[in-house]
């Protein structure tokens, strides 16, 4: 099985990085954590831009092994990587075409695995080729930067918070292209972010970092639902559920999904019936009832079992609700509500989720839009 290996240590005043990671050599691995936790330092060490102590390898190809000696270190420009920074860093004197040509020329013709036509089509930038960077929006500049990185035919694509400098509208513009990149380019991606919504939308594998160390590393969906991790107590704590598009009701602005065999209504989405999608459900948008309401405006009332209860706060607790063996929701409720309802692990309850709270997160062309 293909794999990215990173066993790295680095220290300087006020900070120490100490990680041992095995990431899948396919899909998107997201490094998630607060600013200053070491995400970018780890990414730069993978690229060879920071010489941390240890070992780095991709699918058996060793890029660094300090146990052998400092000479066993492949220099950054010799590593087959693409690197996308927070800022697009395009050459201002070159057109989009010129910037892309620069990326393509970094690789010998017989080693090029991504054609100009493929990169341009994937990022949707064909109409921009003659423009200079100062005539592009922030989202367009980042799409060009990603295309340029792809044209180096990398075996690994590293992305350091590529959306952090964009406003909400430009971020929404770029995200669908990142999803297409994941599905179509066939290049493993290590993606740094502190934004939970980006991680939920893009991650196949999730690495949660704190203070230079890895708190958890595993498949994204079950990792988001773990109550033993700090992210379950954050304000935007959420579970990711896998669903399938069932039907659309355009006249009502709704789409019906199937989640673990149960219907779930969200705002009208782009998926075709039968298409898999992800839904991000915030813990604060889930309430719990002992009986199934029949006179409620809430469209999604799903039978569930309380799988776990955690909470250090004096005023709230977080519940993990099992809809099926591999499908969970999180619910943030007050301690008073827990006590009044007598909630405990193992109880059968009903999870109530407003359709207006839901976001479709994935699928072919995975456009995310608010539910209604």
Query: Tally of extended strands?
Result: 20
CATH class of the largest domain: Alpha Beta
The CATH architecture of the largest domain can be named as 3-Layer(aba) Sandwich
**What summary fits the major beta sheet?**
6 strands, mixed
Q: What is the number of independent domains? A: 2
The amount of helix comes to 10-25%
Rounded to the nearest angstrom, the distance between the terminal CA atoms is: 42 Å
Query: Unreliable runs, pLDDT <50, ≥5 residues?
Result: 362-372
Overall geometry: globular
Average pLDDT across residues? 88
As for the CATH topology of the largest domain, it is: Rossmann fold
**What structural category arises from helix and sheet content?**
alpha+beta
Radius of gyration: 22 Å
Q: Tell me the strand percentage band.
A: 35-45%
> Helix-strand pattern, N to C?
EEEHEEEHHHEHEHEEHEEEEEEEEHEE
Count of helices?
A: 8
CATH homology superfamily of the largest domain? P-loop containing nucleotide triphosphate hydrolases
Widest β-sheet, arrangement of strands: 6-7-8-3-9-10
Kindly describe this structure.
By secondary structure, the chain is of the alpha+beta class. It folds into two domains: 3-224, 3-Layer(aba) Sandwich (Rossmann fold), CATH 3.40.50.300; 238-360, RNA polymerase II/Efflux pump adaptor protein, barrel-sandwich hybrid domain (OB fold (Dihydrolipoamide Acetyltransferase, E2P), Beta Barrel). 20% of the residues lie in helices and 36% in strands. The protein has eight helices and 20 strands. It has helices at 39-47, 96-105, 116-123, 138-150, 168-184, 196-202, 220-224, 335-341, and strands at residues 3-12, 15-24, 28-32, 53-58, 61-65, 81-84, 156-160, 189-193, 205-210, 213-219, 238-249, 254-259, 262-267, 276-282, 286-289, 300-310, 316-324, 327-334, 348-353, 359-360. The strands form four sheets. A six-stranded mixed beta sheet has the order 6-7-8-3-9-10, sandwiched between helices. Strands 13-12-11-14-20 form a five-stranded antiparallel beta sheet. Strand 7 (156-160), helix 5 and strand 8 (189-193) form a beta-alpha-beta unit. The longest helix has 17 residues, at 168-184. Mean pLDDT is 88; it is low at 362-372.
């Amino acid at each position: 099985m293909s794999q990215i290996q990173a066993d790295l240590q680095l220290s300087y005043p006020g900070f120490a990085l100490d990680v041992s990671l095995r990431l899948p050599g396919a899909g998107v691995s997201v490094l998630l954590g607060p600013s200053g936790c070491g995400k970018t330092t780890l990414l730069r060490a993978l690229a060879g831009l920071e010489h941390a102590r240890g070992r780095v390898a991709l699918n058996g190809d060793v890029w660094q092994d300090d146990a052998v000696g400092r000479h066993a270190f492949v220099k950054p420009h010799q590593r087959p990587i693409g690197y996308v920074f927070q800022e697009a860093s395009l050459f201002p004197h070159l057109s989009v075409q010129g910037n892309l040509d620069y990326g393509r020329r970094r690789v010998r013709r017989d080693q090029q695995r991504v054609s100009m036509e493929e990169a341009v089509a994937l990022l949707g930038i064909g109409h921009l080729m003659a423009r200079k960077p100062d005539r592009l929006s922030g989202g367009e500049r980042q799409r060009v930067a990603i295309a340029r990185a792809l044209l180096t035919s990398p075996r690994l694509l590293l992305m350091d918070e590529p959306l952090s400098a964009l406003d909400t509208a430009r971020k929404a513009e770029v995200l669908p292209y990142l999803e297409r990149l994941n599905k179509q380019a066939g290049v493993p991606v290590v993606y740094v972010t502190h934004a939970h919504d980006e991680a939920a939308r893009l991650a196949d594998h999730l690495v949660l970092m704190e203070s230079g160390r890895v708190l958890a590393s595993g498949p994204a969906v079950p990792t988001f639902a773990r109550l033993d991790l700090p992210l379950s107590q954050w304000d935007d704590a959420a579970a990711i559920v896998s669903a399938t598009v069932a039907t659309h009701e355009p006249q009502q602005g709704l789409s019906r999904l199937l989640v673990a065999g149960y219907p779930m209504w969200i705002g009208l989405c782009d998926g075709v019936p039968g298409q898999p999608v992800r839904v991000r459900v915030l813990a604060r948008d889930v309430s719990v009832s002992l009986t199934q309401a029949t006179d409620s405006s809430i469209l999604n009332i799903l039978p569930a079992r309380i799988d776990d209860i955690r909470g250090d706060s004096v005023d709230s607790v977080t519940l993990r609700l099992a809809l099926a063996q591999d499908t969970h929701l999180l619910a943030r409720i007050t301690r008073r509500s827990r006590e009044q309802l007598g909630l405990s692990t193992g109880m059968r309850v009903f999870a109530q989720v407003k359709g207006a709270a839901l976001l479709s997160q994935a699928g072919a062309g995975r456009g995310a839009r608010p539910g209604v």
